[in-house]
């Protein structure tokens, strides 16, 4: 192994073990090393981790995280609006269409590390995730509720 190769591996090791270094930086180094080593599988993995996974891409198991389903309900009562009443729900409370699509208590994490780091830096808090199709299902739940009791509630699923 050439001295420059060893130096590159040492730099990668330092970046991975350094709590102050960004994960995106370590992935960029891994991407470069994979290119030098002509290791296409490692290069493809590092690029997806850095840039994100497309909707059709198979996600690694570590990018499918447990996530409780919560519904945020705004109630419209005579003379008042109660906003943001959040409660946890079971997947069985979702419309049949959502259950058939496999919506459950896990969330895919498709954005790349670069985007995730930017989200955390911008908000300084945990990053909220929603199941795929949650906007459509919240709208469907709101419409069904309005059929039963007009103007009583609106839903947001997260």
Structural features, described:
The chain is built from six helices and five strands; from the N terminus they run H-H-H-E-E-E-H-E-H-H-E. By secondary structure, the protein is an alpha+beta fold. The protein folds into two domains: 3-51, no CATH class; 62-157, no CATH class. The protein has a three-stranded antiparallel β-sheet. Strands 1-4 form a two-stranded antiparallel sheet. Strand 2 (69-77) and strand 3 form a beta hairpin. The mean pLDDT is 77.
Give a nutshell description of this structure.
The chain has helices at 3-17, 23-36, 40-51, 96-100, 113-123, 134-148, and strands spanning 64-66, 69-77, 80-89, 106-108, 153-157. It has 158 residues and is of the alpha+beta class. The strands form 2 sheets. Strands 3-2-5 form a 3-stranded antiparallel sheet.
């Amino acid at each position: 192994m050439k001295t420059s190769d060893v130096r590159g591996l040492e730099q990668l090791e330092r970046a991975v073990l350094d709590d102050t270094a960004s994960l995106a930086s370590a992935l960029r180094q891994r991407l470069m090393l994979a290119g030098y080593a002509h290791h296409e599988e490692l290069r493809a993995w590092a690029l997806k981790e850095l840039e994100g996974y497309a909707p059709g891409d198979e996600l690694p198991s570590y990018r499918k995280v447990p996530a409780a389903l919560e519904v945020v309900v705004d109630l419209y009562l005579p003379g008042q609006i109660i906003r943001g009443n959040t409660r946890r729900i079971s997947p069985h409370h979702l419309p049949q269409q959502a259950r058939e699509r496999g919506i459950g208590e896990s969330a895919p994490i498709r954005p790349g590390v670069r985007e995730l780091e930017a989200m955390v830096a911008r908000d300084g808090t945990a990053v909220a995730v929603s199941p795929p199709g949650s906007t459509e299902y919240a709208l469907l739940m709101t419409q069904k509720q309005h059929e039963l009791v007009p103007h009583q509630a609106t839903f947001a699923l997260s």
